[in-house]
Automatic annotation (TrEMBL):
This is Peroxidase. Removal of H(2)O(2), oxidation of toxic reductants, biosynthesis and degradation of lignin, suberization, auxin catabolism, response to environmental stresses such as wounding, pathogen attack and oxidative stress. These functions might be dependent on each isozyme/isoform in each plant tissue. Its cofactor is Ca(2+); heme b. The keyword Calcium applies. The gene is LOC104785623. CDD domains: secretory_peroxidase. Residues 1-29 form the signal peptide. It catalyses: 2 a phenolic donor + H2O2 = 2 a phenolic radical donor + 2 H2O.
């Protein structure tokens, strides 16, 4: 039996949210939720089944796929450039400092793409596949559903240098965070606060946490915003001079669930990384009321998250004859293969 999504909020709430956001998703005429309706109607089922199967052995994969999508979109838009391996023409974004030995899930993406190529050859782009996979990953973890705008094509190059500068650092203060988001076109406080809510599940390595615990900003003291009890717990998990690759839950309360607990943690001084806690602990910040709102209402958080995800997914998409539809997400197509797409989204090769 194929993947069949079930709503995590009430049926009425989901219906209202879906209607509101269907209108929002259609605001970008280049992308539309029904793009594969005729050419690959099984696309959601194939992607969903692949994730469900992987979740049986890897409960982290949902958060990892969402993170892959974020790290793709922040570097020249959502074009699947992060999935490309090294070539003679460019250096892979996987080697950039924010991604090296950190982003993961590429083997799952490979299996997903192989299944789609068997069902719908040369039809579904890796960029759209990753966007759909992130939405299904959120849904399977208890988060919201939304109509994903589709029709992206894949980049034929990677952007190693840009990946080193465009992706927000876990050590950023609020000013730096806002600048990083604004640089890619996400200039609303709600974009920053809602998308940061993706840290409501998944894990981070100790190397991104340890400076807060022992030598915050060169003070040789812990970050003063850390809850004392949480500080003790984190020092146990991430000892000074310990193994920096040890993993720690972003949310120690509901570590695999996509929910609003992340924001409650921030209010309690229990944000895992500095850039998260800055949203609530920066004096007078306009992000504080949003943290309070999302902490108090699942519906309000989900609505803001969906709106921000759609905005992020619409950043600089390659459409029409731009880019290509990769057959293997790791490599650019052979130049002997040219994909032609008609107005209905049907594709053929020449």
């Amino acid at each position: 039996m194929g993947f069949s999504p079930s709503f995590s909020c009430s049926a009425m709430g989901a219906l209202i949210l879906g209607c509101l956001l269907l209108q929002a998703s259609n605001s970008n005429a280049q992308l539309r939720p029904d793009f594969y309706f005729r050419t690959c109607p099984s696309v959601f089922s194939i992607i969903g089944d692949t994730i469900v199967e992987e979740l049986r052995s890897d409960p982290r994969i949902a958060a990892s796929i969402l993170r892959l999508h974020f790290h793709d979109c922040f570097v020249r838009g959502c074009d699947a450039s992060i999935l490309l391996d090294n070539s003679t023409s460019f250096r892979t974004e996987k080697d950039a400092a924010p991604n090296a030995n950190s982003v993961r899930g590429f083997n799952v993406i490979d299996r997903m793409k192989a299944a789609l190529e068997r069902a719908c050859p040369r039809t579904v782009s890796c960029a759209d596949m990753l966007t759909i996979a992130s939405q299904i990953s959120v849904l399977l973890s208890g988060g919201p559903w939304w109509p994903v705008p589709l029709g992206r094509r894949d980049s034929v190059e990677a952007f190693f240098d840009l990946a080193n500068t465009a992706l927000p650092s876990p050590f950023f203060n609020l000013t730096q965070l806002k600048a990083a988001f604004a640089d890619v076109g996400l200039n609303r406080a709600s974009d920053l606060v809602a998308l940061s809510g993706g840290h409501t599940f998944g894990k981070a390595q100790c190397q991104f946490v340890t400076p807060r615990l022992y030598n915050f900003n060169g003070t040789n003291r812990p970050d003063p915003t850390l809850n004392p009890t949480y500080l003790t717990e984190l020092r146990r998990l991430c000892p000074r001079n310990g193994n920096g690759t040890v993993l720690v839950d972003f949310d120690s309360v509901t570590p695999t669930a996509f929910d609003r607990q992340y924001y409650t943690n921030l209010r309690n001084g229990k944000g895992l990384i500095q850039s998260d806690q800055e949203l609530f602990s920066t004096p007078g910040a306009d992000t504080i009321p949003l943290v309070n709102q999302y902490s108090s209402s699942t519906f309000v958080f989900f609505r803001a998250f969906v709106e921000a995800m759609i905005r992020m997914g619409n950043l600089r998409p390659l459409t029409g004859t731009q880019g290509e539809i990769r057959q293997n997400c790791r490599v650019v197509n052979s130049r002997r293969i040219r994909v032609v797409e008609n107005d209905e989204g049907a594709v053929s090769s020449i």
